[in-house]
Structures are given as C-alpha cells and as structure tokens.
Automatic annotation (TrEMBL):
Key words of the record: Cell outer membrane, Membrane, Signal
Location in the cell: Cell outer membrane
Any single Gene Ontology cellular-component annotation: cell outer membrane
UniProt-recorded name of the protein: RagB/SusD family nutrient uptake outer membrane protein
Family the UniProt entry places it in: Belongs to the SusD family.
SusD-like N-terminal domain sequence ranges: 109-226
Naturally occurring in which organism (per UniProt): Spirosoma endbachense
Lineage: Bacteria, Pseudomonadati, Bacteroidota, Cytophagia, Cytophagales
Length: 546
C-alpha cells in the first residue's frame, strides 16, 4: 500500500501571509485560533503537516509548470494553452511568452506569492508555539528542523521569483497595512540559518513518506549554495548526498518513471499524492499537460493507457534536438513518438490498420513523401510540427513528454493522478556537483559527475559514446545536460535564472518567447493587490519593468 504524509487544511486565519485576502475561505466551527490550536503535541504535528501541504499548490500542477518550467528554452505553447498574451481566463500564455505579463497575473499572485507566504506564516506559528506545546524535547528539535527547512524552502521560491521580499519570522496575527522588501542577501542569510539548523535536527530517515530527511535537506542546501555562487559548499553537500547515504541511481532512466516504482533509491523528496484522490485536495495533473491531441487521429480514441490530452505544453525543437537517441536512452524514456491504434470500430480506422498497429508517428526528423505514402499511419515530421526557425507549425500534434503518464487512473475521463511529483532526486545532485566544480575551475571533476549521469542514461552498449571529456564541459553543456535529465521536473526557469542564461537562451531557442522577453523578466511582478494593500507605497515598490 502506498503510504503518504497526512496533509491537512488549517485555518485561513492561521495560514494568511501578508495583508492580501485569501482566496480559500475555510469554516472554523470551533472558533479556534493559533493560541488554542497549537497548545498540544497533536496540534503542532498537524501544523507541521499543514506546512508541507502548500507544495501541492504548484508541484504536479499546471500553475507550477507555468511558473517553473515555461518561458524557457525548452517548452512552448501548445494549442489549448490560450493563444494570446493577455491574462483574463488564460494566465499561462504570459508566463510562456512574456507578452502581457503584468502585475495582475493570477498565477503569480495566488500560486507563488500567496501560497508561499501562507506556508511561511503557518511555519512561523508552529515555531512560535512549539516550545510551550508539551512536545518531548527530541521530537521538538525534529519539528523545529522541519519547520525551519520548509520556511527556507518557500522563501527560496519567493526570493528567486521576486527578488527582495518581506521577511517575516513571526506569525501574522492581525491585518498588516505596511510591508518592507528585505534585500536579497538578508533573505538568503535567513534561509542559510534555517537550513543549517535543519541539517543537524532532521532525522536521517523517515517512515512517513513525503516528510523531509537530513539527506534531502542537505540536497536542498547544495542547491541554495549553488544559487548563491558558494560553489565549494554546493559541491561538498552534493557529494555528501551522493556518497554518504544509501541513495543510488536507478539502473535505467526509464525505471524512474514507472508508476509502480515511485518510492525508490533515487528520490530524495517528493510531493506524494494519495491513491485515494479525495485526500489530495487536487491531485497531480502533470500527466495531462504535455500530451498532444492524439484522440482525434484516425484509429485512435482517448483511453486510460494513452492518457488525458490537455494539449498545454509542447517541446521546443531545441529540446528535441538536444538528444542523440542512438546513444541516449532518455529521449525514448522521456518522449512518446508512436501511438498504437486503439479504436475497436474498424470503420474508424484506416483500411488495413488493426488494433495495436501504429496509428500516429511523430518525429523530429524530416520524412520523404515516398515514405509517407508507404505507411498506413499518420505521420507528423519535423516540418509538419515546426517552421524552419523553430516556431511551432502545429500546436495540436507533436512529440509528447510521457515521464508523468499514469495508466492506473480509473477511467479515461479521470484527469487526476496519484503519481508523486519528485522535487529533489539524486540525479540532480550529480549535476549540481558538476556545475559547482566547473565554476571552481575543476573541469576534470565536473566531467566525472556528468559522465556518471550520462553513463546511466546510455543505450546498452553505447556507454563509451555517452562519455565526455573535460574540455567538453561548459556552462551551456551543463544546462543542456540538465534539460536532458530534468525536462518537465519544474526546475528549468530557476536553472536559467541562476546561471544568468534565461534571456539569452529564451531568445536563442524559443521563438515564441524571443520577441518579448526582456532582462527585467528574470524577476516576476509583485502582485498589484499587494502593492495596493499597503500604506507605505514609497517603501514597497514594484519590480522594474512592470
């Protein structure tokens, strides 16, 4: 049976972050307040569990993918993602193309800003009342470590997204009318303080899957050190996670994405979703977001095995061309190119096509007219899908990411998935070590860690072809390798921002975003409702460019 951490919803009163209104209004029949809720060990435990729950607002969700993966060099708009740059009912296109990205973008406001601050405020409540709640001393230290880790986790999302942000270390118990944007360095100083405490306080292991452990907290600390240019520290922590515990890379990249093997030796931390969908308050939707419209093709209909096609996101041609699939197994493990006929009504299949035969084939290579004519199935080649400059030609039909497929859903109409959303895994630690070592001028060592990842990814018998020399390792190569390894895993926007490559690579490789992206887009706009709510507007200004 799949175990999962019991996330709960707590009071909107306790969860509120700044002066903004909460969209989620929760009924509080007992009239409870933080002062009464957190007076017992059970209340404290419930509070900590509640802090974890805010990850579910963006990991495994369309909003999170838009905020963390899109608007980069590797993804662009598919047909059902809205086709204008305005907000309205479609907040995602501005996050994809930067056209019309304004201070009123609802996903920037409700998913990144509000939910992170709600989580931080709940963590602050736990930390305030924990010492007097009767929790045994050993457990108190562990819960303080978890709460401080999670506070740092959410502040990292905020400071990377918005730059200077209000730093609050006490719970907000009344309506605030003023706010100050704390400098980035000071926010990071607090993040490091919290994480350094966490890595000494959090247990090495957990029986409550989904709860943070010491190795996972060290993995995040490695990422934060890398973000701040502290490369030796980043390298040290990444290598400690790689060698100091029982975590191991899985034998094959494809096995990472088996729906039956989600709890494995490579996953450091995930947002775990229950197989009882009612417990999830919104389950993982990643499996729907990257699928093309296969169900309208001859010989095809929507079914559980092939997935629910929301047709939201499609790969850039640049992403597809990063892979040499003759050597690198990650292309075929990550992407679905062939669709097998599943239409049982023979009159809806092309003549001579049987159930199980190839019905649709998508390829990043050009196909000759003679080849098309020799096949019964429908072909979408590179020229069907993309123009010469990489702009999509067909936003309905494309090579589809399949990493998040869930063939265990109850029906073909079910959009929710119990698949976990990985947020820290061992494979990324190798790439963090490589990047940190490269930044330190240690290209031989950087190549070693890149080659560990590439050897695991090799097609059997092609390991030698996958290995690279120290001279091959550049920052752009590492970013390319991160794309091959981590595409869709909600890290790309932060990767490009960290390396100062967001604008350059979006302009070069994403024709939809290229005309609009500007240097100021390395930060998101502060929600206008936050600026409107404060009285000290001269001290709480919008990010430049918005």
């Amino acid at each position: 049976m799949k175990t999962y951490i019991k996330y709960i919803s707590l009071l909107a009163l306790i969860a509120t972050g700044l002066s903004c209104k909460q969209d989620l209004q929760e009924y509080n029949p007992a009239g409870s307040t933080a002062q009464t809720l957190f007076t017992t060990p059970e209340g404290i435990e419930a509070g900590v569990n509640g802090v974890y729950s805010y990850n579910r607002y963006f990991y495994g969700k369309e909003e999170g993918q838009a905020l963390m993966e899109m608007g980069t060099d590797i993804w662009t708009n598919a047909a059902n993602n809205g086709n204008t740059g305005t907000n309205g009912l479609f907040p995602q296109p501005p996050l994809m193309t930067y056209q019309g990205l304004t201070t009123d973008n609802v996903w920037v406001k409700t998913r990144m800003w509000q939910q992170c601050y709600a989580a931080i405020n709940l963590a602050n409540n736990v930390l305030k009342y924990l010492p007097s709640a009767g929790v045994p001393a050993a457990r108190q230290k562990e819960l303080e470590g978890e709460s401080r880790f999670l506070r740092a986790w959410y502040y990292w999302h905020l400071v990377e997204s918005f730059g200077p942000v209000p730093l609050q270390l006490e719970p907000t118990e009344t309506i605030l009318t003023t706010a100050t944007r704390t400098p980035v360095d000071a926010v990071y100083e607090q993040i490091f303080q919290d994480l350094q405490f966490a890595v000494t306080a959090i247990p090495l292991t957990t029986t409550d899957y989904g709860r943070i452990t010491r190795p996972a907290s060290e993995a995040f600390l490695a990422k934060v050190y890398l973000t701040r240019g502290k490369n030796q520290e980043a390298s040290n922590y990444a290598k400690k996670v790689i060698t100091g515990y029982s975590y191991k890379l899985l034998p094959t990249y494809a096995s990472l994405w088996s729906i039956t093997g989600q709890q494995n030796t490579e996953v450091l931390w995930s947002v775990n979703y229950s197989t009882n969908l009612a417990f999830n308050a919104g389950s993982n939707l990643n499996h729907t977001l990257f699928l093309m419209e296969y169900n309208t093709q001859p010989g095809m209909k929507r079914d559980v095995a092939n997935g629910f096609p929301n047709v939201r996101y499609m790969p850039t041609l640049f992403l597809l061309n990063l892979f040499n699939e003759q050597n690198d197994s990650r292309y075929n493990a990550s992407f679905k190119s062939a669709w097998k006929a599943n239409e049982t009504d023979a009159t809806k299949r092309p003549a001579g096509m049987n159930v199980g035969d190839t019905a649709v084939f998508t390829t990043k290579y050009p196909v000759t007219a003679a080849f098309r004519q020799s096949k019964k199935y429908k072909i979408y080649d590179v020229n069907d899908m993309y123009k010469a400059d990489g702009t999509p030609n067909d936003r309905f039909h494309y090579v589809s990411l399949q990493k998040f497929d869930d063939p265990t859903r109850a029906t073909d109409t079910e959009t929710q998935s119990a698949r976990d959303a990985y947020i820290l895994r061992l494979g990324e630690m190798y790439l963090i070590a490589a990047e940190a070592l490269f930044n330190l001028g240690k290209k031989d060592s950087a190549a070693y860690y890149v080659n560990e990842i590439r050897t695991r990814a090799a097609v059997p018998g092609r390991q030698a072809n996958m290995r690279v020399a120290a001279a091959d390792v550049t920052l752009d190569f590492i970013l390319d390798e991160r794309a091959r390894e981590l595409a869709g895993e909600q890290v790309r926007w932060f990767d490009l921002k960290r390396t100062n490559k967001l604008v350059e690579r979006a302009k070069k490789y994403n024709p939809d975003a290229a005309p609009n992206i500007q240097p100021f887009h390395v930060l998101r706009p502060i929600p206008q409702s936050e600026i409107d709510a404060v009285t000290n507007k001269n001290d709480f200004k919008q990010n430049a460019g918005y």
